[in-house]
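Usage example:
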Amino acid sequence: MALEGVRILDFTRLGFGAQATLICGCLGAEVIRVESSTRPDPVRVMPPYVPDPGDKGEGFGAATLANATSAASANRGGIFYKYNTGGKRSITVDARHPEGLALLKELVKVSDVVTESFAAGTLERWGLGYDVLSTLRPDIVYVSMCGFGHVGPDRAHVTMGPTAQALTGLTFMVGLPGRPPAGWTFSYLDHVGGYLGALAILAGLAHRQRTGEGQHIDVSQLEPATALSGALLLDAQVNSRPSRREDFPMGNRRTHPPSAPGGAYRAAGEDRWVVVSCRTEAHWEALVEVMGEPEWANDPKFATITERVEHADELDRHIEEWTSERDRYDVMHQLQAAGVPAGAVQDSADRLERDPQLEARRHFTMLGNSEVAPLPLEGLPVHMSATPAHTGGRIRRGPPCLGEDNGPVLAETLGLSAQDVAKLESDGALR
Amino acid sequence: MTQSSGALDGVKVLELADSSAEYCGRLLAGLGADVVKVEPPEGAPSREVGPFAGDEPGPNRSLAFWADNVGKRSVVTSDDDDVLSLCEAADVMVHTLRAPEARSRGLDFESLAECNARLVVCALTPFGQTGPWADYQADDLVLMALGGSMAACGYAPGRDGAYDTPPLACHGEQAWRTASTYAAIAVCAALLWRDRPGSGSRRGQFIDVSAHECSASMTEWHLMAYLCSGQVHKRGPHPTLQGADGRQVAALTPDFLGPHVFSRMLEMLEGEGVAGPLSEPEFADPVHRAANFKEVWRALKRLAEIHSADEIYRLGQSAGLPWGVIRAPDEVLDDPHLRARGHFVELEHPEQPVPVSYPGAPFLAHGSPWVMNRRPPLLGEHTEEVRSEWAPHAASRR
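Running the assembly step on the lines above writes:
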């Protein structure tokens, strides 16, 4: 596998950092999560919980850590299963215990990469700052990932996905005119930050491969996002046209390049929609033909894309009259057969249960662990011919139970015997 | 040649791509690779996409092109033999060709590998090279729909419980960008593997990126929520506070992070004179708070009435709350934190009288800094230069 032989000592938690190391795990790196049984990764203990066969299933609801830590297990948090595929392994080490810290230092010496996503200054306080790491191993690639990064006037600021989305314009770009932005119901920037975190790890390894040098790479959740708005930053400067204006954002309407008809249209069924997006005259003509050449389509106000954009409201009403009586997938496939871009608006159930393309691509892999029966989990959505990625990582395994690899990891990396491990446990270093 | 000490210093990337994959080349250029964009004589399609500098169309005036092609050089050719000769010298080729077109042009992986066994070829297409939808058409809107992001974003239902507004797709081509970012990741991984010391016989490979798969995997907890509960989590806005200046703040109250979160928030609200009933002892109990969340929210709204959105942001952050002012995208240019980190890079352009700021490094790599010293290329600006640099090496690669 592409990253075979790379060992990552992984102090990440939650989404952002864990996304980065999951990608590396799927590429074949050995990812050793350093965890705590007394302060578990919040996503291990937050709902939604993977149901116990005996449960009715709790579903999603108001979450408190108090509720969550009283859960029977630290291995049922659903979000943990999203961010911790890639064959990650789990050890529990108390960095605040002198023997735990000493152990971690030994592990650094035999690792290629150290990753973490704590608040800036946390690892330093434990005695594992970059100055220490690079003394232990001069070519260590240390990638820190946290909301505002490690330097800058706001480095003590706290973020979650929605925070970064707000600050970088991603929240703003989801909305209808005249209303506050709708934003996202999920942390898209946990993904984006994680992708750039993975790229940082790979960049660090590439630089080391070429020069023999390690480094500290400081990844924030803001900087990966600033280029996601394309031309808007340039338009504001070059044309003095700020993106905070009446006609932006316009929901699903697109102007650069224009799409008309373009948007989500109601389909048959409750809250079912289909996207149709005509960018060219050829698309429009094909759409009109599929719709059976309705009279209204001959109106000159729909003759060219410019005019269709101008009369978009009226155009959309006509299109929706047609789509609203039809199944969203029928519309999609009929239009696609005619070469028109169209797609059903799919939700989670659709992707898991009725997306033949995801299935053909083997997008989901059934993986579980000693506590959780196999679930359809995701890995790296990229297909490499010589070094295929695998959702279960090098070891073809599901997300790890907390601390399940203490013995094996310490034996393989440091040659510790079962007795050594037992002593560390009884001394309280492996909590 | 570009001087750089970037992580991909010395790596040659040939980009034969429409707008869907240009962000990949931008990232690879930022990592220090020499990224050459091959364009037809009329220019890449993105050069025709607005907005334009001065609102005047022109192949060198497209701001959409500038945004995603900063850092690259441009070669114009309409001859695929030219492309092949450049491939002989390249380390990486990023393209957006579907299998039939690649084959008919002699740019399928087998042909490229014959020309250069060490070439890493990355094809980014809407649905990938295989599968029942491989021939389907998609733009970003279609990908956001099929991938699930759209279903998860939008306003709340109306009073009768039915939605009167559609699911919404974020602007900015997020599905293509995610696919491009994954493509860059895979390219880097392939190069690392190929160039590992002691593995001299390792070759290039074919990387097949489906934007649909990438788009389907970026909805964070939604798939798990369904697997765990059997219910689809529906779209709706997360609550925002409106400041006195009319701008909004995303004001999260993550009780699940522990009781200290509320106590610091209470202190801040009391300091601002708006705490009201929250000061009462029963609000220290998270269960009571959850049941009376309206009162918490009312206190926050009282705060918002007397402060601008930026002030609310900073008050919240001073109390350790993960609040963020909801900015329009270009408003990041004024962020003092990003400025202090040197995030924006100014580059001149012949079509502009003053330099323009671009978003720069997505991370601070102290040992191998992000490279951004090339403005977006004029059409065909580097044709001769690249040919003389890359083509002479072709013979020695065989």
